[in-house]
Amino acid sequence: MMKLYGSMKSNPAGHLEIGGCDAVTLAAEFGTPLYVMDEEQIRANCRAYVHSFARHYPNSEVVYASKVFSTVAMCRLAEEENMGLDVVSGGELYTALQAGFPADRIYFHGNNKTAPELLMAIDAKVGRIVVDNLHELELLNELAAARKTAVSIMLRVSPGIDAHTHHYIKTGMIDSKFGLAIANGQALAAVRAALARENLAVHGFHCHIGSQIFDLKSYTEAAESMMSFVREASVQTGFIAKELNLGGGLGIFYTEGDTPQPIERFVQEIVKAVTVAAGRYDLPRPKIIVEPGRSIVGEAGVTLYTVGSIKEIPGVRKYVAVDGGMTDNPRPALYQAQYEAALANKINHVSVQTVSIAGKCCESGDMLIWDIELPVVEPGDILVVAATGAYNYSMASNYNRNLRPAVVFVQNGKADLIVRRETYEAIIQNDVLPERMRKLPAQY
């Protein structure tokens, strides 16, 4: 039985309802595949973070990690909920600026920011550029000097914490493409270098230990390690960090066995760890910044598909194919991610068979879910896959030249389109045909 999140429930028609909207009606109106985002659940999660920190540690800022789901509407929602914004590319920064998001509340991340991206950030006057490495530090100083300005930065540090999660989404270890390691002296060398640069103003340190984390001990260890480094930097250079960004990564529920921790407890553990360490090292308590993403939108999103072909291999497996797949959800292929699902038009029916959900791509690895219990499945049924609000839209592709899905916000029985479904014309809009190959296009 699929877990129902937020406003999801069964309605009198026996259909799944989200935000007061019938999922079957949504599929008919907007087509499938379709990303459906429960706006009230998203806002509730934002407020849980903001209000918890306001109670326990007012000198704080909650920054939405937009890489998990970035659209103009989502950036506007984050602003309305009094959050900052974390961007990791020129495209995400451009989206934020087009949404009218206050630039001074934007944190710009990335391990290989290009010169044009950095210039965009400098010209927009973003709040903080989070410097990942020594090459970027020198490049940023040169670009800021050319603009005759000073840039506010944080230094991304690797605290050496092994968060117990998939190895592709561990980011706080010494052997990582991200950040400056404390253990080998790179981080301290970067502090010295940054303080010596005339066009860089250092405000503090950042770390991010990984994603889909359930063990809060990982965060307390990271906070302790970072505060220890704050002390070391103070002793060695005289610089006392005023800001400490501890990243995000709090896990959510995808399938049975996942044990997500309450946001309030996450906040309390971080506040306690920083406070205790500040006292131990005789340091002023820094501003705490966190960057939740998955835990904001993950459980608030579902994907609707229409069932197509069904193939049964006697004694082996029954394949149920849908009109999407790895193009709208590459996570099963990338991370062996697992999901729960149900039939939105048969939400109250009893599960009577084991099937595997296949995508439509010309790729053997395009499998969304292996061996799931469902009611009798028929072509035309609407399959709903839960907890797809994070990383699905943002990682969607045009593999096989499939169209990327539309996205809707739902609340109080109203559905608002926030991303239009792609068109075939849009897929080829950047294709260029050399003059020597041109002929009249075929007419369809």
CATH architecture of the largest domain: Alpha-Beta Barrel
- Average pLDDT value? 95
CATH superfamily of the largest domain: Alanine racemase
> How many strand units?
21
Query: Radius of gyration in whole Å, from Cα?
Result: 24 Å
Approximate helicity band: 25-40%
Please, how many helices? 13
Domain tally? 2
Shape: globular
Strand content: 15-25%
Structural class: alpha/beta
Sheet bearing the most strands, described?
A: 9 strands, mixed
- Between the first and last Cα atoms, what is the distance in angstroms? 45 Å
CATH topology of the largest domain: TIM Barrel
CATH class of the largest domain: Alpha Beta
Low-confidence stretches: 165-172
Tell me the layout of helices and strands.
Blueprint: E1 9-10, E2 16-18, E3 21-22, H1 23-30, E4 34-38, H2 39-56, E5 60-65, H3 72-80, E6 84-87, H4 90-98, E7 106-108, H5 115-124, E8 128-131, H6 134-146, E9 151-158, E10 180-181, H7 186-195, E11 200-206, H8 217-237, E12 243-245, H9 263-280, E13 287-290, H10 294-297, E14 301-313, E15 317-322, H11 331-335, E16 341-343, E17 353-358, E18 367-374, E19 382-386, H12 392-395, E20 406-411, E21 414-419, H13 424-427
Helix pairs in contact: 2-9, 5-6, 8-9
Descriptive account of the structure:
It contains 13 helices and 21 strands. The protein has helices spanning about 25-30, 40-55, 70-80, 90-100, 115-125, 135-145, 185-195, 215-235, 265-280, 295, 330-335, 390-395, 425; strands spanning about 10, 15-20, 20, 35-40, 60-65, 85, 105-110, 130, 150-160, 180, 200-205, 245, 285-290, 300-315, 315-320, 340-345, 355-360, 365-375, 380-385, 405-410, 415-420. It folds into 2 domains: about 10-40 and about 300-430, Lyase, Ornithine Decarboxylase, Chain A, domain 1 (Beta Barrel); about 40-290, Alpha-Beta Barrel (TIM Barrel), CATH 3.20.20.10. Strands 4, 14, 15, 16, 17, 18, 19, 20 and 21 form a 9-stranded mixed sheet that branches. The protein is of the alpha/beta class and about 450 residues long.
